[in-house]
Recover the amino acids of this structure.
């Protein structure tokens, strides 16, 4: 019986010797360091080594690990070390696997590096890494340490420089209710050096909507890309690059060629430079003068297709010399070129024709000509030191087709007289794009008002809907301040009321004590309010005229401090109250009230005319936000209707 027991113990010891090889080194300081080789794994903790040991390893059975075997029958495991060495090499012969162990004063990491790395075969991809211990998202450099990357195997000698771990947790799939996780942390040893500690654990996902069981793992991963091979190259080529290149199929060749021809023969695209041809056949592009680094005009600014622009710049001129010699002052300069209807050179040429001509005098008075012939309107210097017919404003209107072809182009000029007191000369330029056969209606918001856009105003005759002005900037207006400060001379120039923009403007009016009070009051009120003051303002930027309930009436309030013999209005104040409407994420501006306050004088006309006879008029616009802070609303708590079973308190009751 005793013999049988000793035989069993010997067999168990023999089996253990076949599956694990352990080597023990005695260091000069008496510390024990152990290196074990088990399958493809090795854990080494070496301090100061001073021996060389050769071990004849017995036959090691194959394991089911992911990597190659460390040792086989007849292989010799050799550990070559030197006293105070900083690197030890564990070599297994004749295997093609080399295990290199880097030894640092604070930590040692053992990695298994194949001696040869074969490239993937054509049409195949390397298998993905699913072992969490091998995943390291912060390892971006090969054979080089990534700072603070605690899972980087190349950082064994640089751990003392680490301050934290960039990646502290690596998980398999965050959608699963139960998932594998590896935690990395940086600890400090008793010697004051940094040491990485990794922990593998099973983590529970606290999310209620997690995946308990994944029966279709392909849905949790990215689709494997199709690698080109000799068999599928043509199909991939047709799928991805067939639009740009022709293929062998006749039908697909026709489709691709038709697409290419359509692209070549298509019209302008957004932001394309509008091409022109001058009278000599030289090709160029349509320009729109604009300010350069300073406010000085530069004539090389190209006009881009479908990009409406509005520019303003100045020119320093010597009127006596430059009046008839600077091309930018002549309207003929803006009509010399013809526009290519499409980008290719063989397209039709579109002439630029004049839509309107407006003349402006020295005092600012404007008159629109009935004729659009500008042959006789060239800049000229007269004996009164005035340069007439100078271009002050140019407005291009380009009409295009839905295919991108330009079908029409027209320009409107404002020509004026300029003297030396108006220098430097200010010029305005604008380009507008409209689609053919359409009648676009610009909005001031959709639905709420947009800051800086004009208020939508209109009139409502009895028994009808709202009528709007064709000029979106001519609905609700205020006085426009000018350097002349004369109400009668600048009565035609007004500024639109823009949403959210407070305005203060004014002018002066010369009155006499003998003037008719009633006539004077009507004239002043017309100057302050404009020729046609609207009755309604749209509550939203896109309010439709037929929806009368979406329009807010303008309330007029007149205030007179006393009862004078002659009531003359002195100021008009517009008070616009608005609020935010809708969701807190995307609130919309809505006008809820518009009030016009007219303030009149508190004395008679004779007192107003003395001593200088100048009467100051003013108009103001104020936007007042009346939005109330959002109040949180909570649902009513649920009613708990629970009943206990009849024997709940059994056997006590």
């Amino acid at each position: 019986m005793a013999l049988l027991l000793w035989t069993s113990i010997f067999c168990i010891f023999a089996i253990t010797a076949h599956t694990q090889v352990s080597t023990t080194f005695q260091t000069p300081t008496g510390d024990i360091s152990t290196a074990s080789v088990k399958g493809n794994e090795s854990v080494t903790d070496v301090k100061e080594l001073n021996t060389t040991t050769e071990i004849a390893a017995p036959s090691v059975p194959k394991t089911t690990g992911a990597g190659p075997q460390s040792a086989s029958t007849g292989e010799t495991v050799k550990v070559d070390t030197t006293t105070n060495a900083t690197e030890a090499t564990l070599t297994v012969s004749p295997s093609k696997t080399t295990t290199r162990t880097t030894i640092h004063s604070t930590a040692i990491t053992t990695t298994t590096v194949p001696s040869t790395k074969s490239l993937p075969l054509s049409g195949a991809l390397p298998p993905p890494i699913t072992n969490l211990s091998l995943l390291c998202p912060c390892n971006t450099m090969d054979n080089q340490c990534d700072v603070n990357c605690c899972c980087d195997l190349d950082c064994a000698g640089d751990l003392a420089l680490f301050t934290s771990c960039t990646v502290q947790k690596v998980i398999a799939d965050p959608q699963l209710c139960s998932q594998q996780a590896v935690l990395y942390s940086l600890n400090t040893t008793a010697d004051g050096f940094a040491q990485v500690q990794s922990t593998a654990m099973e983590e529970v996902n606290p999310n209620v909507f997690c995946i308990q069981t994944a029966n279709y793992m392909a849905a949790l991963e990215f689709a494997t890309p199709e690698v080109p091979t000799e068999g599928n190259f043509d199909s991939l080529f047709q799928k991805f690059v067939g639009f740009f290149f022709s293929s062998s199929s006749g039908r697909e060749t026709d489709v691709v060629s038709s697409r290419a021809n359509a692209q070549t023969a298509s019209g302008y695209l957004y932001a394309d430079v509008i091409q022109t041809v001058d009278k000599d056949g030289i090709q160029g592009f349509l320009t729109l003068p604009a300010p350069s680094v300073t406010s000085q005009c530069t004539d090389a600014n190209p006009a881009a297709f479908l990009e409406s622009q509005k520019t303003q710049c100045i020119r320093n001129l010597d009127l006596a010399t430059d009046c008839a010699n600077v091309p930018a002052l002549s309207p003929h300069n803006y009509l010399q070129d013809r526009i290519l209807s499409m980008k290719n050179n063989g397209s039709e040429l579109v002439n630029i024709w004049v839509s309107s001509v407006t003349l402006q005098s020295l005092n600012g008075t404007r008159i629109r000509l009935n004729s659009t012939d500008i042959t006789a309107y060239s800049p000229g210097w007269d004996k009164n030191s005035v340069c007439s017919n100078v271009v002050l404003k140019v407005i291009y209107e380009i009409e295009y087709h839905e295919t991108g072809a330009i079908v029409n182009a027209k320009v409107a000029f404002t020509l004026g007289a300029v003297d030396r007191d108006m220098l430097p000369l200010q010029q305005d330029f604008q380009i507008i794009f409209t689609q053919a056969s359409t009648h676009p209606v610009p909005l001031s918001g959709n639905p709420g008002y947009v800051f800086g856009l004009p208020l939508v105003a209109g009139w409502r005759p009895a028994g009808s809907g709202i009528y709007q002005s064709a000029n979106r900037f001519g609905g609700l207006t205020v006085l426009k301040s000018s350097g002349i400060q004369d109400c009668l001379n600048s009565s035609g120039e007004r500024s639109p009321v823009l949403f959210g923009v407070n305005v203060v403007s004014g002018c002066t009016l010369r009155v006499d004590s003998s003037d008719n009070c009633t006539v004077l009051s009507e004239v002043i009120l017309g100057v302050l309010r404009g020729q046609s003051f609207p009755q309604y303002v749209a509550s939203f930027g896109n309010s439709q005229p037929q929806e009368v309930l979406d329009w807010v009436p303008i309330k007029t309030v007149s205030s007179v401090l006393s009862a004078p013999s002659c009531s003359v209005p002195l100021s008009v104040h517009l008070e616009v109250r608005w609020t935010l409407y809708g969701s807190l994420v995307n609130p919309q501006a809505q006008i809820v009230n518009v009030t016009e306050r007219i303030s009149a004088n508190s004395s008679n006309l004779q007192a107003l005319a003395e001593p200088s006879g100048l009467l100051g008029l003013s108009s103001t616009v104020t936007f007042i936000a009346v939005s109330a802070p959002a109040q949180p609303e909570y649902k009513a708590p649920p009613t708990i209707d629970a009943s206990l079973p009849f024997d709940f308190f059994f056997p006590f009751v």
